[in-house]
Amino acid sequence: MPSNRALRFLGLTSVCFCIIIIVSVTLYGTDAFPQTVILWTPKFSKPSGPEVIGLEDNPDATGSGIHTHPLDQLLAEAKDSLEQNLRTQAFTLQEAATQYRRRRGRYPPPGFDAWYHFASSTGAVIVEKFWDQIYHDLEPFREVAPSTLRQQAAAFHVGISIREGKVSAKGNNTAGKTSIWMHMLQTLAQQEHVQMPDIDILLNVNDEPSLIVPWDDIETAMSYARKLKLPPQDVLRVFPEYKDGLPFNYTFQPEWLGPRLTHPASIMGPRPYWELVRSACPPGSPARVAPKFIDIWHPKGHTSEAHQAINMFPLSTPKDTIQGYIKNWTTATDPCNFPHLQGLHGAFVRPEAMSACVKLFPQFGAGKMGVNNDILLPGTGEWKSTNHNPHEMEGETIAWEQRQNKLFWRGPDTGGHSTKINWQRMHRHRFVSMLNGSQVALAEKTFASGNKTLEGQSPARNFRLPISNPYRLATQGKGRLGKWVKTWADVAFTEISCDVWSTSKLCPYNAAYFGSLLAPTSIEEQRQYKYAAIIDGNGGDDGGNFTQVLNNGIVALRATVFRNWYDSRLWPWVHFVPMDNTFMDVYGIMQYFIGTDHDGHDAEARRIAESARDWSRRVLRKEDMLIYTYRLLLEYARMMHDERERLGWVEDLLAENGK
Q1: In this structure, are 423 and 502 located in the same domain?
Q2: Structure confidence at residue 225 as a pLDDT band (50, 70, 90)
Q3: Does 24 have pLDDT greater than 70?
Q4: Which residue among 329, 349, 369 closes a domain?
Q5: Which of 66, 51, 50, 68 shows the shortest CA–CA distance to 474?
Q6: Which CATH number belongs to the domain containing residue 574 in this structure?
Q7: CB atoms within 10 A of CB 346
Q8: Which of 25, 232, 401, 623 has the fewest CB atoms inside 10 Å of its own CB, making it the most exposed?
Q9: Structural domain contains residue 60
Q10: Residue 262 belongs to a domain
Q11: Where does the pLDDT of residue 393 fall: very low under 50, low under 70, confident under 90, or very high at 90 and above?
């Protein structure tokens, strides 16, 4: 029995608590107390039998004590991140300049006011983060003397010159990508408010990036990127006259490593591109720590069993994810974090073109990996689509309910040069195999073989199903995964390249796994589907397909090792669905959205599709490509001037000081 003293204490405590509640409600209303949050509980059917080894319930992702699907958390966090960034949107020139100084630690470049007036006149969303890629690309070049940059740009044979607002091609290189980029710059020069700086631009017209400088060299270069802020009155506010003269007999030819990157006097054949990738990764990164598997590139195919594609395919979920689903897009697309990609992605196994340079020079291109040092421009495919085929960007809307509840993909086997020896390592081949229900069903059957080395192995030996079922696939095991995949996967090659002569369009060494080829399709056909896959081809320029998919309100499942100009203005899980470069998470992603037994999240998919459509029509327009390019040209022009540390736009600060 409690004592009288204890009873009096409890009574007094209760009275005090009631008083606190009354006062709180009087002063603040019911908002003084948190609302009850009801979270969706996933309808997972937990399989029984040996296939559930290592399978556990989803952990509590929110700390609420209620188990949720990890994608619920990722979708919510991504939405919050977008909203937080939009709160920094600038609506005046002074706000834009303040955001610039805060994020960059420098004054904006001369002409910043003209840039802002052009951007605002188009109704652009002006968030300083949107231009992060420009500064990532340009900062290493502060180590190079401005005179050297000018001479390299003037002497290089492929490029564009801008003088007094007039855009012209260097020499006779006016075809292909050069002509499209020229048209983009000429269009920019004709816009109201635009004042183009005098500069020379070097162009990479190949499909793949060229510059891959060792990490140590970039670190040294970045040490020169000091952020100096002179007193505003000492700032040079107008670009000086451009010094474009060349020394007598000056020539510039980048030190290309050659089309095959050969080992000197070696019987091992081509030196792998991965060797250059590793050197461009930071010390301590997984790619630097893990060994280079040189037998992967043996010219006769003498590869150890451990390094076969089927055995390099990971069986556990990637790090820095939430139960295997991508949380950090920058981490997920950086090859330095995934050494197994040296044997599982065509860009590293055997690039189509292996022209590479390990020394900095200012070359512009459409796409690159995080380890590359090219300067990014909007892609020629995107620009061409917005100008010549505008209906592809914003076509007639098809009601969401009338679309097929399937994942669509068509394409050639690009992304690397495939051969009889290496095709099983190519990422596009693996994706098509993993979305082939018959191959998935056969992989499932090997679970029951009793042979541990064959468990979950696909017949093409380019992927395997992990027996632990880390993505909690309700259909895995019991022969139902392959059957389920057949209900929603519409994936096929349109072209397959062979390194041996064949009487058909298929290759004799892998025809059994890919069946017949299907005709290429247009964006009009993709509009019939709710989901579309975006898979790396050659380089980072996909011809504008990704932006077309977004503009047309299709849920894009995107996997890539490349970066593009627009990456800083798109949010994974809000505007597209990120996918691991092994595609290991594709089944889990599709289970969440389409479900297996009327338990999908179609409403969430529709929200992503509509968000992507509405957002891309605000930030991926033709005007936005021009705005990005204009800002890039101003920063590049400042980098090329001898007085670059003194150049800046400070009119708002001088006005505040009355000067």
Answers
A1: yes
A2: confident
A3: no
A4: 349
A5: 51
A6: 3.40.50
A7: 27
A8: 401
A9: no
A10: no
A11: low
The segment with the largest mean pLDDT, out of 220-234, 401-415, 511-525, is: 401-415
Indicate whether 479 and 608 sit together in one domain: yes
Q: What's the average model confidence in pLDDT over 313-341?
A: 95
Parallel, antiparallel, or unpaired for β 562-563 and 368-369? Answer: antiparallel
Q: Which residues contact 297 (CB under 8 A, 6 or more apart)?
A: 268, 269, 270, 271, 272, 349, 350
Tokens linked to 211 = 């510059």
Claim to verify: residue 543 and residue 401 sit in the same structural domain: yes
562-602 pLDDT, tens digit per residue, is: 999 999 999 999 999 999 999 999 999 999 999 998 889 99
Tally of domains within the chain: 2
Q: How far does CA 94 lie from the centroid of its chain?
A: 31
Q: Residue 198 has which token pair?
A: 């005098």
What DSSP letter does each residue of 583-599 carry, written as one string? Answer: -TTHHHHHHHHH-SSS-
What is the structure's pLDDT at 28?
36
Strands 577-578 and 555-559 come out as parallel
Half-sphere exposure of 40 (CA within 13 A, CB side): 14
Lowest-pLDDT choice from 172-186, 266-280, 287-301: 266-280
Question: Would you say the C-alpha torsion 281, 286, 289, 293 has a positive or negative sign?
Answer: negative
Considering only CA atoms, which of 110, 113, 126, 115 is closest in space to residue 194? 115
**What single-letter DSSP state applies at residue 2?**
-
* CA proximity to 199, closest of 649, 638, 645: 638
Percentage of residues in the chain with pLDDT exceeding 70? 85
Q: What's the CA angle centered on 571, arms 551 and 35, to 5 degrees?
A: 115
Structure tokens at 91: 């609506």
Least confident interval from 8-17, 133-142, 354-363: 8-17
DSSP element (H, E) containing 369: strand 368-369
Q: Of 235, 62, 248, which is closest to residue 650 (Cα–Cα)?
A: 235
Q: Print the domain residue range for 316.
A: 273-349
Long-range pairs of 397-401 with CB within 8 A, sequence gap ≥ 24: 397/553, 398/527, 398/528, 400/530, 400/553, 400/606, 400/609
For residue 444, count other CB atoms closer than 10 A to its CB: 22
Identify whether 516 is part of a domain: yes
Q: How many CA atoms lie within 13 Å of 5's alpha carbon, on the beta-carbon side?
A: 0
Choose among 438, 455, 433: nearest CA to 54: 455
Model pLDDT, residue 41: 29
For residues 343 and 419, membership in a common domain is answered with: no
- Specify the residue for token string 């040069």: 417
pLDDT category at 502 given cuts 50, 70, 90 is confident
Q: What is the DSSP string of 348-362?
A: HH--S----BSS---
CB 533 within 8 A of CB 97: no
Q: Is residue 472 part of a domain?
A: yes
Q: What is the largest CA-CA distance in the chain?
A: 105
Measured in degrees and rounded to the nearest 5, phi and psi for residue 411 equal 175, 165
d(Cα 490, Cα 278) in Å, to the nearest integer?
36
Q: Which residues contact 249 (CB under 8 A, 6 or more apart)?
A: none
Residue position matching structure tokens 């955001």: 99
State mean pLDDT over 545-557: 95
